[in-house]
Predict the structure.
Amino acid sequence: MRDSMVTGDDQLVGRVKRIDRGWSTFLCVQNLVDEEMVSFRERRVRNLGVDVAVGDWIVVAADGERIIGVVPRQSRLVRRASSEGMRYESQTIAANIDVVFLAHGLDTPPNRRRLERELVLAFDSGARPVVVLTKSDTVDEERSILAFDAVVATSLGVPVHVVSSVTGEGLDVLRQYTRGGATIAILGASGVGKSTLVNALTGTDSQETGGIRLSDKRGRHTTTAVDLVPLPDEGWLIDTPGVRAVGLWTSGHGIERAFADIFHLAERCRFRDCKHHQEPDCAVRSAIATGHLEKSRLDSMTRLVEEEAALEREQRNYNRK
Ligand SMILES: Nc1nc2c(ncn2[C@@H]2O[C@H](COP(=O)(O)OP(=O)(O)OP(=O)(O)O)[C@@H](O)[C@H]2O)c(=O)[nH]1
Ligand SMILES: [Mg+2]
Ligand SMILES: [Zn+2]
């Protein structure tokens, strides 16, 4: 039997699993002829000079030597590249994703500021955010409910699920998101249990997992590269390395969607361009005064808006040089 029966030209088709310096590991589609029985085989191809990200569908020359096409992306999760030397560069974490799981561990109090930032990033990607509170086996119900309520108040209508990769609680609910062959990227700080969750959902131990420091419950940055994993039945998971801070990259309406409550209130401010500082008849400030909106939430949004504006200025100056 031929190794890869794909297109008439014998080109190979696959999905990028991992990227290492100059090389892409991809899951090469086998048996496309028989749609019921698609399987994958791991292969590697040079990717120098080609803009590829994990999750991209690629076409590779029949000899397997080079990528000859990248299918246009349906969605992409982008953040600002973290290293100083690349201040004006964006980094595509993952492409062609349908859902983003924002993972937070119940073993530490929820970091609402971090969650807000992740929500902006997820909304901007074009995928659907879902909050996943991990390690439910490590806390009692009271603490779990407190965290759940805080997270629901921060994420406004975004689904929130409580799960444990140890007891299996909530995993069936998460599996529903893979229906129809969807792709789910998992984001979150180091040590929250992203890789453990991938293993629990795939029923394998493909992902390396690591301990956490007892002193501050921080992870040890066990996962070092973004990695796409197919699920046994349908769908795909993308494991990502935990990062300390997520840098925003300007695009779309992420902030408006993550802070829809404030944008909604602002429609009733007297001035269209109200900054919610000193202006008279400010609906946002009156909501804070009456206890309907937390000031910390407005401050958080203001910081993110300023961060985006600063980035846009930097980009303009950079392009002018
Ligand atoms: N009790 C309990 N421990 C868990 C659970 N999920 C993960 N852990 C533990 O948390 C630690 C970190 O898990 P990982 O899956 O490596 O975390 P990660 O988010 O992938 O971390 P990075 O790869 O560093 O970003 C490991 O010791 C896991 O065994 C859970 O549901 N319950
Ligand atoms: Mg990991
Ligand atoms: Zn206002």
User: Anything to note?
Assistant: Residues 194-195, 222-223, 239 surround magnesium ion (ligand 2) (CB under 6 Å). The longest strand covers residues 12-20. Residues 259-320 form a domain with the Ribonucleotide Reductase Protein R1; domain 1 fold (CATH 1.10.40.50).
